[in-house]
Amino acid sequence: MTDSLLKEKEEHDLDVPATAALTEAAGAGVTLRVLRESRRISLSEASQRIKYSVRQIQALESEDWDSLPGGVPLRGFVRNYARYLEADVDAVLILLDNQVGPTAPPSVMTAPGVAGSSVAGDAELPSTTESSHRPWGWFFIILAILVIAAFYAVDRGWVPESWLIFDWLKAIANNE
User: What is the per-residue burial (b if ≥16 Cβ within 10 Å, else e) of 90-128?
Assistant: First the structure.
């Protein structure tokens, strides 16, 4: 009697790597469904957590690819769901690619002679530091133009003397 209970407990408490190994021949959707069921997570719980509808999760788990968006959006959906289930994301994405074809974004093309990196798999694109310096440059150029325009307006007498709080500005306005 205790042997049968222990055997049932062992079958019920399969660890995630063993479950994934059992379903390696299956596709990405079936693998994710088995993982979700082994963790005792309902469809509604998963839907609320990853912000996809129950219908979309059911379509993924039943591998109804026609009901789901293709390409990069499908890849993102599968990646988020696999992360939520604490699965090996790369392995699940390989299963997905084997089923529906390549879903990875295309590599980035660069001009000849320019060092560039191609996007390999799910690597994040590096942020460029060049764009972060440009706004400050424009800020200083605009500030310099405004200062020059202000001095020109004071020199021409376009600014009332009551606005001038510094004596040296009054001297400029009076052309002394």
Answer: eebbebbbeebeebeeeeeeeeeeeeeeeeeeeeeeeee
Does the structural domain 11-100 have CATH classification 1.20.272.10?
no
Which amino acid does the sequence have at 29? G
Q: How far apart are CA 43 and CA 47, in angstroms?
A: 6
CB atoms within 10 A of CB 63: 18
Inter-residue contact 55 to 33 (CB < 8 Å): no
Chain-wide mean pLDDT for the chain? 74
Residue 149 phi, psi (nearest 5)? -65, -40
Convert the pLDDT of each residue in 117-129 to its tens digit: 544 444 555 555 5
